[in-house]
From TrEMBL:
Keyword tags: ATP-binding, Nucleotide-binding
Molecular function per GO: ATP binding; ATP hydrolysis activity
Pfam families: ABC_tran
Source organism of this protein record: Rapidithrix thailandica
Domain of life the protein comes from: Bacteria
InterPro entries: AAA+_ATPase, ABC_transporter-like_ATP-bd, FeS-cluster_ATPase_SufC, P-loop_NTPase
Family under the similarity heading: Belongs to the ABC transporter superfamily. Ycf16 family.
Protein known as: Fe-S cluster assembly ATPase SufC
Domain ABC transporter: 2-246
Keyword Nucleotide-binding found: yes
Length: 251
């Protein structure tokens, strides 16, 4: 589904990613962990197609297409979902209208008929249950004045509505509370099936108490320096990242 080969990227002339290779198949959950500043958010941003980042080398294939040649909207239409792509605040556009447009854009690109008002409402109700999101957030302007937890819940709600084939969730290091973590985990666990995949970027192991990854990768200085199963995440929780740094630098 996603194949990253020897990806190098920089921001503002600073080299951040130094040769990342990673392959994700349908039905898999991959966790990307690593110390602060190792390039986790940069990797997510490059995959999202954020313009500030320059790809210097490498190749990324998504569902058989050259991802790096696609604009951010095309990536979304092809079934890629990036959580932080949407938490922008858009005054004057209600959450509901935003989602209706987004859902129908994706349907159009899949060759499906747009949903009419009744069908859309039915889908919203069904997905609202998954995320346990408050009805009142639907009529408010997109993300405007939402609390951190509400934004996160809304983001996962968007993911549920769009039914992407690959979701990339950057949990950022800036302390999601336990309720927000559970919302993310519950969303992933409910939406996971044999046809979709998830990349969960996380600094701490605690999210992985709720989402069980199939693979765990450790990013350090812009490279994947270790890959393993969920046991690796437990080891990191117990021992921190220093032993990995020593192992790499000693080698
Ligand atoms: P992580 O998500 O693993 O904590 P990031 O991808 O956010 O790491 O950052 C990787 C490195 O890139 C850090 O050293 C950070 O300071 C640097 N960086 C991120 N954004 C910028 C920017 N806009 N300009 C210059 N350096 C940046
Ligand atoms: Mg960071
Ligand atoms: Mg980060």
């Amino acid at each position: 589904m996603l194949k990253i080969e020897n990806l190098h990227a920089s921001i503002e002339g600073k080299k951040i990613l130094n040769g990342i290779s990673l392959e994700i198949n349908p039905g898999e959950i991959h966790a990307i962990m690593g110390p602060n500043g190792s390039g986790k958010s940069t990797l997510a941003s490059v995959l999202a197609g954020r313009e500030e980042y320059e790809v210097l080398e490498g190749k990324v294939t998504f569902a058989g297409q050259d991802l790096l040649e696609m604009g951010p909207e095309e990536r979304a239409q092809a079934g890629l979902f990036l959580a932080f792509q949407y938490p922008v605040e858009i005054p004057g556009v209600s959450n509901t209208n935003f989602l209706k447009t987004a859902v129908n854009e994706v349907r159009k690109s899949r060759g499906q008929e747009p949903l009419d008002a009744v069908a859309f409402l039915k889908l919203m109700k069904e997905k609202m249950k998954v995320v346990n999101i408050d009805q009142s957030l639907m009529t408010r302007s997109l993300n405007e004045g939402f609390s951190g937890g509400e934004k996160k819940r809304n983001e996962i709600f968007q993911m549920a509505m769009l039914e992407p084939t690959l979701s990339i969730l950057d949990e950022t290091d800036s302390g999601l509370d336990i309720d927000a973590l559970k919302v993310v985990a519950n969303g992933v666990n409910t939406l996971k099936n044999d046809h979709n995949g998830f990349i969960v970027v996380t600094h701490y192991q605690r999210l992985l108490n709720y989402i069980v990854p199939d693979f765990v990768h450790v990013l350090y200085k812009g490279k994947i320096v270790k890959s393993g199963t969920k046991e690796l995440a437990y080891e990191l929780e117990e021992k921190g990242y220093d032993w990995i740094k020593k192992e790499i630098e000693g080698a």
